[in-house]
User: What shape does this take?
Amino acid sequence: MDQRFLNPAILAGIDGLDLVAKTVVDGFVAGLHRSPDFGFSQEFAEYRAYNPGDDLRHVDWNVYARTDKLFLKRFRGETNSLLTILLDASNSMQFGSHRVNKMDYARYLAASLFYLAIHGQRDAAGLITFDDEIRNFIRPSTRQGQLYRLLAGLEQAEARARTDFAKPMRYFQEFLKRRGMVLIVSDFWESPESIVRAIEPLRYHGNEVVLFHVLDPKDVRPDLKGPAILVDLETNQHLEVTPDYVKKDYRDKIQTHLADLRDRTQAAGMGYCLLMTDRPLDAALREYLTLRGGHN
Amino acid sequence: MGFFAPWFLAGLAGLALPLYLHLLKKQTTTPKAVSSLMLYESRTQSSTRHRRLRYYLLLALRLLVLLLLILAFANPFVNRNAAALASNRLVLLVVDNSFSMRAGTRLTDAKDAAMSVLAGKGAARGQVASFGSQLRLATQPIEDQAALRAAVQAIQPGDGHGNFGELARAIRAMAEAVHTPIELHLFSDMQRGDLAATFSDMALPANVTLVTHAVVTKAQPNWTVEQVNAPGQVWGKDVKPVHVQAVIAGYGTPAAQRTVSLVVKGKTTAVKTVMVPANGRASVEFPALEAPYGFSQCEVKIDSADALPADDLRRFAVERSDPQKALLIHNYGDTRSPLYIGAALSAAAQSAFILESISVNEAADRKPSNYAFIILSDLNSMPSLLDHSLTEYVRAGGSLLIATGTSAGGRSQIPIFGGHIIEARDYNRIPDRYMAVGSSDSSYPSVAKADGWQGVKFFYALDVDPGVGPDAARVIVRLGDQTPLLLEKRMGEGRMVLLTTGLDNLTNDFPQHPNFVPFIEQTARYLAGSERQGGARPVDAFLELRNARERAQGVEVTDPEGKRPLTLGEAAKAQSIQLTEAGYYQIRLANGRQDEVGVNPDPKESNLDVIPADVLALWQGKGSQVQDAANPNKTPGPATPPKTPQTLWWYVMLLVLTSAVAESVIASRYLGTQREEE
Assistant: This one.
């Protein structure tokens, strides 16, 4: 796989989320080499006799010309899944220790997933951005121009306020009436227990729920050259911390936090994928396709 | 407690710098943003306190290093009781054995006084030295009374001229190595003539206490032969009588008649009576010096019957020898050069040289080595045979004077000398129609007595390139337009002097100028190597034993006592010898020539006037007066033991070193922690 097209640092130099998404997905798909694990809707599966009411766009007119009968072309994986991405737009997502901050990375990720879903799988895709409230909702659809609406929604998502899963999750239930896939992209700076408790209800409707945990490398391995005052981006709280603590105790705590979150989400029947902003996007796309394959 | 240099305490203001860097600048830390403080805890107080403590320790050490450095520059001292330091002190006994100490029983008195001081010095260490023209240590600092007494007894009278400035300089150098207090006892006749030019030259270091022991307290009258003017060499049988002139001086004497004798080889040849005015001088002239062939030891003596009979005579040596031959080679038909040079030599050099003038055509059958030096006067042709024989002559140690006139203008090079002729300069064409001397080396013998050739007009000269490198010629005289006029060059063992103008009066008016005679005389003596023969020298003067061409050839010196003062190694290498004793020195020089000189004490030693008591008191009490000046309000009170300032510089510097090491250790540990974090 050509990692170059998936490297966030390179993607940061590309203008426009549509181009970013196209670059990522094309690069990713080119590297899959028709793996048997993943079904693409472009891959021919079978012919089915036309029934009145079927979409005429899917009729194979060559077969009609030869046999004078109407057949529909069926493609593998063409099951019209529903993809909804819940994007955390809280202040903590602004943090970045290098060129791509967490919000940018989340946008690239969401855009790529939308592109893959709509262009590749012909799925209906929707977007909810939230912080401590729901800020934007684009209903899942397969209509023309849906991809551009979604990309515009991503562009408009500005990081602000603080994360509160409990409050907006109550409203998610109302928006997510149809069964589908729900991908939550966030840095999940809350206790694993409260996160799982807030998200778990989404699973009850038969949704496949995956947590994309986006973190900056310095979130996991911060470094300090001397005693310093740290400021919380969401609460603006100040705290004096010493390098000794950061070097030992903090690293232990973050590893415990990550392991706990992963265990609890998996125990609740949800997927979990940790994404570092200095790593390529392919892990997230693979996770989506795996999930998509199982959903068929 | 005080400071020798308190102005350096102004540097304390520099302590503000580490304070600023550590305490003020530290507070300007910029808060650092993080995604969430959820997992951070402020439970690191103990670690921070520990670090802060180390941080303050580092600050304290840095402040301490700076403070101690400033103190070291300010040089603190404490006043310690002199009595407490007595056991550490060094008693330095200096006995004056300069020439004036020969008067009466001065030296014996001085040694007796030294012995009595030695007896009362207690347990302190002692060191004995004699002081003539310079300080000579007779012992190391020791406590052995017997050895010290023996060293005092062994001090012999000398002939040097004392100088208390030189003594103080030697003591200052000594005090730099000896950090304990030095008690300097000076046993001397305290001659006024021994005072240094300025009083500051006699200043002694703070840890030196001077105690003077004057063996005489008032001036004594003394007559002396102050000066004798006599030639060092005479040649041949007397054509002209040789005069000897002497000056008789009286110091603190009444007007008196003195009998003056001229003694040659122990035999009185002439006696004269002279009236010496009170505390004044009179000169005596002996019209003829009848010295036989070879060296003669001569003296001018007076019958003074005063306290210092050793200065009643003045020695000089005279050598009588046959005149040396010199050869002048000139062009056929040139009559001017032989005339001028011959007249100058006979007029000035007291018949020291017999000049033989020949034309270049006759030169072939002459053997150059028979002549003391050879003069080439503006030769228009140089036969190759003559060129070769003269070159060999110079290489073997001969001397050549080459004068170039108009005949050499067409050549590109000076024969034998080898200098490239750049151009011939005819000064008749310039507005003044002549060129005068621009610069000259007045130390050069040919120029020294010729008044720098001032006023001589040169109409024509060759511009000769002196060359570069080790074979380059030395330019002695230049004309006003920087044209070299007189050059010297060494070739092999010999030397050549080049005059870039003629010795006739066509190219210059030099032969008709009064300076021409001394020029020819001094050049002849210089080239013949006879300029340093015979005569008299003062004690402590240096006598040159060899020049460059005579290197690695042995010399032999016999001092007035008949001993050889030079070791074999020194005899092979020494350039000169210091004449430390009065009497006659016999020298066999490296070129095989014999020489003999009469050495006389410095005439200033004959003035037996003494230093006034107030000047002596000032010299001795200088240290305490400086302390009094620092405390003008001091009122007379009960006698307090004398205090001596003891510098604490060494201790402060030790503390600086220790603090600097501690600071380095703490700082490296502090920085080490930071490196781990990175």
Remarks:
- Chain A touches chain B through 38 residues (CB under 8 Å).
- Chain A has two domains: 3-33+79-295, 44-75.
- Chain A is about 40% helix and 20% strand.
- The CA atoms of residues 116 and 230 of chain A lie 39 Å apart.
